[in-house]
Design brief:
The chain is of the alpha/beta class and about 475 residues long. The protein folds into three domains: about 5-260, Rossmann fold (3-Layer(aba) Sandwich), CATH 3.40.50.620; about 280-410, Isoleucyl-tRNA Synthetase, Domain 1 (Orthogonal Bundle), CATH 1.10.730; about 415-465. The chain has 14 helices and 17 strands. Strand 13 (about 260-265) and strand 14 form a beta hairpin. The longest helix has 23 residues, at about 310-330. It starts with a strand and ends with a strand. The chain binds one RNA strand of 75 nucleotides through helix 1, helix 6, helix 9, helix 11 and helix 14.
Length: about 475
RNA sequence: GGCGCCGUACCCAAGUGGUAAGGGAGAGGUCUGCAAAACCUUUAUGCACCGGUUCGAAUCCGGUCGGCGCCUCCA
């Protein structure tokens, strides 16, 4: 049984899709005004882990992710560059998808852009106006929070504690109350992007797109909605308010929020010089998989302190997995395994699943995997791991990879290329030298291989090699 | 000021009343021509600190100190 912490109640609750079959899930995607940073990707990777876990439970998935491709920053930057917003954002949408692929993030069933759904948003505004939950000020439309008893429940605000002097957008002077938020913005400048819609000329407010698109594709009420913790208020709070005011029913059953990451103990900020995009880390020689491992190693509800030392540790942890699989695949194994080892294998698999079911406790899941690695290595040494388990264990690691995306591939054992044949010849030459006890020659070949990025290891079962 | 989270070994981290998982790093050892990998041993009588509840607390309660988040840009 899967249990997740629902922000709506603040407690761990058993989760299953309302219809028992298909999980309807909406995720707040990137605002494409710039390249996504490593903080964004922590959220997206952990949402991906959730997505994969839900699939493993046997449910179908309808996962919608939005791309916010119109907002103040986009408009300003596009204008600076003399581009229309579509042309401006295209580059960042593409880059987001490339980075997502590099991090092995699965594509949602639907990726939807705000600017493709303006009519739906306008329709939602109309409904809110009709029902008296919205009001006009000039060509702008605002949502009226007053009278909604439930407002702010998600963020645990009592609704009236707006800090005096808090930031209030200067163009929203037309609001009846500071708590109200804009649904539809009248154009401020001549060259601003605008849409002619049933509610008038202008552009949508921030929160509107998610309500409109989520309800269009997932229905007025659906199972799961995810995002970073910073979205709890105001974004998700306002999504709930406007959606439920329009439909009169519960918008989302489960809200899941991913904690932020810090960098070297501090908030990541351009002004602190600790702001990283994925590309920045790859340029420093870190693998996307090490980055993903670091994300996965800390459960989603805990702040992750991102450090380069931590990233190196993650890379080393990956090495341990890689070494084990290499040994498992290349070892000379007996026919049968010991009962104790079989039991340990089943126990590890169980513990992995229990960890994941317990609010996606990825740290426990990884611990279960490493326990099995240690136990299997011992078994390999003692000759108690047989061919009857070899395939099962390999299959399990394929499954772990399908679930967490953190298992190094076995590419080094792949189809022999011309280079592979060259390496094999050198390895054989080295062994010939070793047999004739010409260790100087043997070591010189080892150095040559090392320069080619090849690691050579001598084992009781013979010499094996792989690319570093 | 209001609401909330966190503080576990050198680093990361699990743990939600029953006597400290896991990973990385370090030290010693086994194996080994060398090297690597692997394995074994080792690194918290103690979980920020002080009290309390309890037969028993890292886990519950109160307080103190420290760090972080949100209170209309934010993943």
């Amino acid at each position: 049984m899967l249990r997740l912490t629902n922000t709506l109640t603040g407690t761990l609750e058993a989760f299953e899709p309302a219809d028992g079959k298909t999980v309807r899930m909406y995720v707040c995607g990137p605002t494409v005004h710039d390249f996504a940073h490593i903080g964004n990707f922590r959220t997206f990777v952990l949402e991906d882990v959730l997505r994969r876990h839900l699939k493993s439970k046997g449910w179908d998935l309808l996962h919608v992710m939005n791309v916010t491709d119109v907002d103040d920053k986009i408009i300003a930057k596009a204008r600076e560059q003399g581009l229309d917003i579509r042309a401006y954002t295209e580059k960042y949408v593409r880059s987001f998808l490339e980075d997502s692929d590099a991090l092995d993030i699965e594509r949602p069933e639907m990726l939807v852009r705000a600017t493709d759904h303006v009519p739906e948003m306008a329709a939602l505004v109309e409904t809110l106006l009709e029902k008296g939950h919205a009001y006009r000020d000039g060509d702008s439309v605002y949502f009226r929070v007053a009278g909604l008893a439930e407002y702010g429940r998600l963020a645990r605000l009592d609704g009236k504690d707006l800090k005096p002097g808090a930031r209030v957008d200067v163009d929203e002077y037309g609001k009846e109350s500071p708590r109200d938020f804009v649904l539809w913005k009248a154009p401020k400048h001549e060259d601003e992007p605008r849409w002619e819609t049933s509610v008038g000329v202008g552009r949508p407010g921030w929160h509107l797109e998610c309500s409109a698109m989520a309800m269009k594709y997932l229905g007025p009420g659906f199972d799961l909605h995810c995002g970073g913790v910073d979205l709890v208020f105001p974004h998700h709070t306002n999504e709930i308010a406007q959606s439920e005011a329009a439909t009169g029913r519960q918008f989302v059953r489960f809200w899941i929020h991913v904690e932020h990451l810090k960098v070297e103990g501090q908030k990541m900020a351009k002004s602190l010089g600790n702001f990283y995009r994925l590309r920045d880390l790859l340029d420093r020689g870190f693998s996307p998989q090490a980055i993903r491992y670091l994300y996965v190693s800390v459960p989603y509800r805990k702040q992750l302190n991102f450090t380069f030392a931590g990233l190196e540790q993650a890379a080393h942890s990956l090495d341990r997995i890689r070494e084990f699989l290499f040994r498992l695949r290349t070892g000379r194994l007996p026919e049968r395994s010991s009962e104790a080892l079989k039991t340990a294998f089943l126990h590890a698999r169980e513990r992995f699943e229990h960890g994941m079911d317990d609010d996606l406790n990825t740290a426990v899941a990884l611990a279960a995997m490493f326990d099995l690695i240690r136990r299997a290595n011992t078994g390999l040494d003692a000759g108690e791991l047989g061919r009857d388990l070899q395939g099962d264990i390999e299959d399990w690691f394929v499954e772990i990879d399908r679930r967490l995306g953190i298992v190094p591939s076995g590419d080094e054992d792949g189809v022999a290329s011309a280079r592979d044949r060259e390496v094999s010849a050198l390895v054989e030459a080295r062994n010939a030298a070793r047999r004739s006890r010409d260790f100087e020659r043997a070591d010189s070949v080892r150095r040559q291989l090392s320069d080619m990025g090849v690691v050579v290891e001598d084992t009781p079962d013979g010499t094996r090699w792989r690319y570093r």
